[in-house]
Amino acid sequence: MSYLNLFFAWSIVFLCISAHLYSKDNDKKYSFFWGLMMVGWTGFALSQSIAVFGPPSGIPLLMLLSNLAYIFIIFAVLNYLNPYPRTSTEEYSLKWGTKNLEPKNLIIYLSAIILGIILSWYGVLDATFLGIKGVSSLYFSIAFLMAFTLWFGGWGILAAYIAGVFGAGILSGLPLNTSLLLGLADVVEVVIPFIMYRTLARLMDINPSGKGILNNKNWVSNWAFFLSFAVVIPSIVGGFVGVMILYLTKSITVDLIAPAWFSWSVGNIVVLTVIGPLLMQFVSPWLEKYDLTTKGIWS
Prior knowledge:
2 domains, globular
C-alpha cells in the first residue's frame, strides 16, 4: 500500500504540473490554482517517499532530487505571483535595504531556509567523515547556501546559520550548545563570497549574483574570482572555524583536527566547484528577471 500511495502521490504531482503548463498558455486564470496544487501534492509525495524508503541515508540521491523538485516548484509558483518581468534598476550593495519586502520575497526566503536545513541534514547523515557528527565529506548544501546568500543577502546568511544549527548540528545528534556555535562555520563560508561579490566583483565587471559565469566574455576573471572568493578561501576558513568549534566543545579529540579540517575543506571545494556555477548560471538570470534578488542586505 505504501508503494501505491507513493506512485499515486507523484502521479498527481505530474498531473498538476501538466495542468499548470497547459493553463499557462490556454486558461491563465487557473494557472495559479494548479501552481498551489503542485506545491501541496509535492509535500505529500515527499512525505510518502520518506515513509517508503526510510531515513535519507538509504537513498540520498532520491531525497536530494525530491527537494530540488520542491524548490523548483516554489519558484514556479512565485513566477505566477509575479508573472511579468520587472528587473530592478537598483545596484547590488551592502546597504541595509533598498526596497520594501513583498509576500513573494518572504515565501522564497522561508523556502530557502527550509531547503537549507534539509540539505544540511542529508549531507551530514550520508557522508559523515570518520563518524564525526557535524563533519561531512560532501556537504552539498553549502553550494545552495552560498548561492542563496548571493541572491538574498542577509536572508541567505540567516538560512546558512539555521541550516548549520539544525541540519548539521541538532538533527545530526550534536548538543544544543555545540550546534549554536557550529552554525557560525556555515555563516563564515557564505559571508566571505557575499562581501567580495558585493564589493570587489563590481570593480571587475562581474555580476554580484553570479549570472553569466559559464558564458561571460570575461570568463577567465569570472572563474578566478569565483574559485578564489566563493570556493577555496571560504572552504578553508570555514572548515577551520567549524573543526575548532568541535574541538573546543570537546566533540572531537586533537588528533582528529587535521583530518576533519582536510575533509571539510576539500569536500566543500568539490561541491562548490561542481554545483555552484550551475545554480549561478541557470537560476540567477531568472531571479533577476523577476526582481526576486535582494539588492541590499535585507531587501
